[in-house]
Design goal:
This protein has 187 residues and is an alpha/beta fold. The chain has five helices and eleven strands, in the order αββαβββαβαβββββα. A hairpin with a 4-residue loop joins strand 9 and strand 10. The longest helix has 18 residues.
Length: 187
Amino acid sequence: MGFALAEHIANLGGFVHLVCGPSSLEISHQNINVVNVVSAEEMYIEASNIFPKADITILSAAVADYTPVQKSREKIKKKDGNFSIELQATKDIAFELGKLKRKNQVLVGFALETQNEVENAKKKMIKKNLDIIVLNSLKDNGAGFKHDTNKISIISKNNKILNYKLKHKKEVAKDIVDRIVDYVEFQ
């Protein structure tokens, strides 16, 4: 979804800093600066460096909420009995950027919810100081991850909710950008 958004914005003439984790997707456009990262911490650092200069920030990556406390550079050999991994919370990028947001900046986040979807997305939007939140669906075939299609709802600060049908991610990107433009023009 992030690649589709970056490409759509660049095609409209916008300059995009695309910070992305490991992916088999590639993108090449003169208006897109790609920064590859491999960890949630690296994504947080890059996003924090770019954010102060950004007019609009769209956080579409599905960043892990937890990371192992101890990392191993070598294979952990199988032993008899159970094995456990201690996890620690990663920095919440949207929350941290939301604390730094300037008056005229627009911050857009994504939510993937499996229960009380709209209610939980609205809570996330308030907690993280987002202007718009895009609610992803996992309940519909062809939506969410590992598909070229997605089905979303877009919720803005004024509690306006727009529900969209299943579409190709390029069309979903257009819907999201159109909504951001509407928000910017009418705030």
